[in-house]
Specification:
about 5% strand, Fusion Protein Consisting Of Minor Coat Protein, Glycine Rich Linker, Tola, And A His Tag, Chain: A, Domain 2, mainly alpha, 5 helices, three-stranded antiparallel beta sheet
C-alpha cells in the first residue's frame, strides 16, 4: 500500500509539472502574438516578422514540448527509479522484518527451549528432592522400626528375665516348701511315732492293768483246763464303765468264755488314762485273756 501511494504521488507531480510547462509555452505564444499590436511601427517596418515569429513560436513550442516530454520522461524515470528504490527499500524492509521476525521467533524458541529445559531441570530437581525425602523418610522409618524392634526385644528379654527369676524364685520356694513340708512331715511323723510310742506304752500299761483287773475278778469254773484262753472285745464309756463284753475268738469252752465275760463286767469300771485323747482309744478294746493261775 505504501509503494502504490508513492507511485501515485510521483505520477501526479509529473503531470502537474507537464501542465506548468504547457501553460508557460502558451503564455509565450500569447505574448508573441500581442507584440505586433502594441508596436505599429515595428509592424509596418517589416512584413516578414510575423512569419518568423510564427516559425520561432512553432519551434519554441516543439522544443517546449520536447523539453516537457523529456522532463516527463525524466520525471517518469525519476519516479520509476524512486518506485524501484522504494520497492527495493520495502523489499529490504520486508526482508529485514522477516529476518527480525525469524530472529525473534528463533529467540522466542530459544527462550522457550531454555524455559522448557529450566522447567525440566526444576522438575528433575523436585523429583530428585522428593525421592531423597522419600528415601530419608523410609530410612527414618526403618531406623524407628529397628529401634522399636530392639526395644521390644529388650523388653521381652527383661520380661523373660523377670519371669525366669520369678520362676526360679517360685521353684526355689516350692523346693523350700517341699523341703519344709518333708521336714515338717518327718518331724510330725517322728512326733507321731514318738507320741504313738508313748501313747502305745501308756496304752500297753493301761491294757495290762485292765487284764490284771479282769483277772482279779475272774473265777475259774470247776473242771476247766489250765491252758485255755480267748480273745474278748470290750466297749467302754468315758469313765471306764463296761457296756458290753463279746468273745471274738473263743477258747473252745463255752463255760470258760462265759466266765471271762462275767469277770469283765465285775471289773467295771476299768482303769483308763486321764488324757481324753488317749482315753478315746479305749472306747473299744480287744485283748487276749489268759489266766495267770
Amino acid at each position: 500500500m505504501q509503494g502504490k501511494a508513492h507511485r501515485a504521488d510521483g505520477t501526479g507531480r509529473a503531470f502537474a509539472y507537464a501542465l506548468a510547462v504547457h501553460a508557460f509555452a502558451i503564455a509565450l505564444l500569447v505574448i508573441s502574438f500581442h507584440l505586433p499590436v502594441k508596436s505599429t511601427l515595428y509592424a509596418f517596418h517589416t512584413m516578414r516578422q510575423p512569419i518568423v515569429a510564427q516559425l520561432v513560436n512553432s519551434q519554441a513550442l516543439a522544443q517546449a514540448r520536447e523539453r516537457v516530454k523529456a522532463a516527463e520522461m525524466a520525471q517518469q524515470a525519476q519516479a520509476q527509479a524512486a518506485l524501484r528504490a522504494r520497492a527495493e527499500a520495502q523489499q529490504q524492509k520486508r526482508v529485514a522484518e522477516r529476518k527480525a521476525a525469524a530472529q525473534e521467533r528463533a529467540a522466542a524458541q530459544e527462550v522457550a527451549r531454555a524455559r522448557a529445559l529450566a522447567a525440566q531441570h526444576a522438575a528433575d530437581l523436585a523429583l530428585q528432592k522428593k525421592r531423597q525425602q522419600l528415601l530419608k523418610r523410609q530410612e527414618a522409618q526403618r531406623l524407628r522400626r529397628a529401634i522399636d524392634r530392639k526395644r521390644r526385644i529388650a523388653q521381652l528379654q527383661r520380661e523373660l528375665s523377670v519371669h525366669q527369676q520369678r520362676a526360679r524364685a517360685a521353684a526355689d520356694r516350692r523346693h523350700a516348701e517341699q523341703a519344709l513340708a518333708r521336714q515338717l512331715a518327718a518331724e510330725a511323723n517322728e512326733r507321731k511315732q514318738a507320741l504313738d510310742s508313748a501313747e502305745q506304752a501308756v496304752a500297753n500299761r493301761y491294757l495290762a492293768r485292765i487284764r490284771r483287773q479282769v483277772s482279779l475278778n475272774w473265777v475259774r469254773p470247776p473242771g476247766t483246763a489250765k491252758d485255755l484262753e480267748c480273745v474278748v472285745q470290750v466297749r467302754l464309756l468315758s469313765q471306764g464303765d463296761v457296756i458290753s463284753a463279746r468273745i471274738v475268738n473263743s477258747s473252745g469252752d463255752p463255760v470258760f468264755d462265759r466266765s471271762v465275760q462275767v469277770a469283765v463286767y465285775r471289773a467295771s469300771p476299768l482303769p483308763l488314762p486321764s488324757d481324753p485323747a488317749l482315753a478315746a482309744r479305749f472306747h473299744k478294746i480287744t485283748f487276749t485273756f489268759k489266766p495267770e493261775h
